[in-house]
Design goal:
alpha/beta, globular, 22 strands, binds nicotinamide-adenine-dinucleotide, Aldehyde Dehydrogenase, Chain A, domain 1, 39% helix, 487 residues, six-stranded mixed sheet, 2 domains
């Protein structure tokens, strides 16, 4: 504990940056507020371009030794980080819930175990990367997965530690060093991770955390000539700024962005399953990039679907995310609540009807909302709300279903509910989406590629695709001749 240490839900959190293995303060701070009750949790270091540059310098200095560390040793340290996450799982869960308002039970049972799994999975996967050599006219082609260098990782607030570690783990396993910039609305667990990584034996400078506003330090990170990779998860407008900032040095980018994903319910579907999957889209108060916010239902079952949906959604418990019984917690920030309300108001003014919800519950939460009578080209159908707001449209046949489903600028995910396997194959083949779920949602193997098409992103991460991004692949072609030993 130092004079700087905050106590959040009984857990000590250092609000300063973590640069080169040391805590570093900034002259300024910003106030971190809990979405649960609007209470100030503490003052967080407000990074400037100077701290951003110091973090990149630390990552650059630490790179040669970490890159030269045998993969198996790097993997051992990543497993030790996973051990540390598991040991402090309860603390991480309560701090994350206090900081971003997502359900404590999800953090305990789903999110934090997945954080540990991110480290274990990518540690193990890095050991499988060697391919067999190829041979061409007696020449050997040997492919090596060289670490690229310092990586800048920038993450959003809706799943802070999960999304950060989904990038940190493969970047480190590949032999890179990292500068993480967590979102200013949820900065705390990144700081705890820095402690855990240091305790696990990760050398100084291999992982650095810089706190602050993206608008103030983002450019210093993304335009830095020593940065070799930028992986960003967040909104489309920020992605455009980052791409422009990275352009002068042609720094490779991975962009995981927003979505407006469809959930298609065909008349041959198990309707109860369809309703369960539809109601699941209110998880995390709708603040999920993958959420299937556009429900498209075949006309003949639309009335029955709506009836069952309203009954099921009506049973959701909205309230304090720390309570076991709560299904929907608060929205991250009053500004986000205003944004959600603005979308719904404009939709209603344009003719939409709120079947359920359509209003704030209090100054922190928005009621789960279902809007019908929405036009395909309307804002509410085309733009990401990032709140508990779903639209419902009907379709007459498969062609119309596909046309509506595919008609946005996004391409992150799609969910189909159908009892007909051939239909599932046909429709899947016609949709533009990084992930398609058939009769399920959210389940995913970390070995599989993840990302979005169109404005939902650039590139894929996951399994070998993560290492494709975080490595400089090198093919060494060796001739059978020219050796002194004539061998
Ligand atoms: P955001 O774009 O406002 O911010 C994301 C991060 O970018 C934050 O850390 C922020 O500080 C930083 N940032 C802001 N300006 C910057 C700049 N000029 N340079 C560098 N960094 C800058 O997004 P958000 O509101 O935090 O997150 C919500 C968005 O994230 C939604 O659009 C959601 O769909 C998307 N998201 C996508 C995925 C995915 O995997 N595809 C996952 C979660 C969230």
């Amino acid at each position: 504990m130092t004079e700087h240490t905050l106590t959040v839900a009984g857990v000590a959190v250092d609000p300063r940056h973590w640069i080169g293995g040391e805590r570093v303060a900034s002259a300024g701070t910003f106030t971190d507020v809990s979405p649960i009750d609007g209470r100030a949790l503490g003052e967080i270091a407000r990074g400037t371009p100077a701290e951003a540059a110091a973090a990149v310098a630390a990552a650059k200095a630490a790179f040669p030794a970490w890159a030269a560390t045998p993969r198996a040793e790097r993997a051992r340290i990543l497993h030790a980080i996973a051990d540390g996450v598991e040991k402090r799982l309860e603390e991480l869960a309560i701090v994350e819930t206090t900081d971003n308002g997502a359900l404590l039970r999800s953090h305990r049972r789903g999110v934090m175990p997945r954080v540990a799994h991110n480290f274990r999975f990518f540690a193990d996967w890095s050991l499988t990367l060697d391919h067999e050599d190829f041979e061409t006219r007696g020449h050997t082609n040997h492919v090596s997965w060289d670490p690229a260098g310092p990586c800048v990782l920038i993450t959003p607030w809706n799943a802070p530690l999960m999304l950060a570690t989904w990038k940190i783990a493969p970047a480190l396993a590949a032999g890179n060093t990292v500068v993480l910039k967590p979102a200013e609305w949820s900065p705390l667990t990144a700081s705890l991770l820095a402690d855990i990584a240091a305790e696990a034996g990760l050398p100084a400078g291999v992982l650095n955390v810089v706190q602050g506003y993206g608008s103030e330090i983002g450019d210093a990170l993304t335009s830095h000539p020593d940065v070799r990779r930028i992986s960003f998860t967040g909104s489309v407008p920020t992605a455009r700024r980052i791409a422009a900032s990275a352009a002068p040095h042609l720094t490779p980018l991975s962009l995981e962005l927003g979505g407006k994903s469809p959930l298609l319910v065909f008349a041959d579907a198990d309707l109860d399953l369809a309703v369960d999957l539809a109601v699941e889209q209110y998880d995390n108060a709708g603040q999920v990039c993958l959420a299937a916010t556009r429900i498209l239902v075949e006309e003949t079952v639309a009335e029955e679907f709506t009836r069952r949906f309203v009954a099921k959604a009506g049973a959701l418990v909205q309230g304090d995310p720390r309570e076991e019984a709560t299904d929907i917690g608060p929205t991250i920030h009053p500004r986000q609540l205003d944004r959600i309300d603005g979308f719904v108001r404009r939709a209603v003014e344009a003719g939409a009807r709120a079947v359920i919800g359509g209003h704030r519950v209090d100054e922190r939460s928005y009621a789960p909302t279902l809007l019908t009578e929405v036009a395909q080209d309307s804002e509410i159908v085309q733009e990401e709300v990032f709140g508990p707001v779903l639209t419902l449209q009907t379709f007459a046949d498969e062609d119309e279903a596909v046309r509506l489903a595919d008609d946005t600028r996004f391409g992150l995910a799609a969910t189909l509910v159908t009892g007909d396997r051939e239909r599932a194959d046909r429709v899947t083949g016609r949709l533009t989406a990084g992930t398609v779920w058939v009769n399920c949602f959210f389940v995913r193997d970390l070995k599989a590629p993840f990302g979005g098409s169109r404005h939902s992103g650039v590139g894929r991460e996951g399994g070998t695709w993560s290492f494709d991004f975080y490595c400089d692949l090198k093919n060494t072609v060796t001739a059978p001749k020219g050796w002194n030993d004539h061998g």
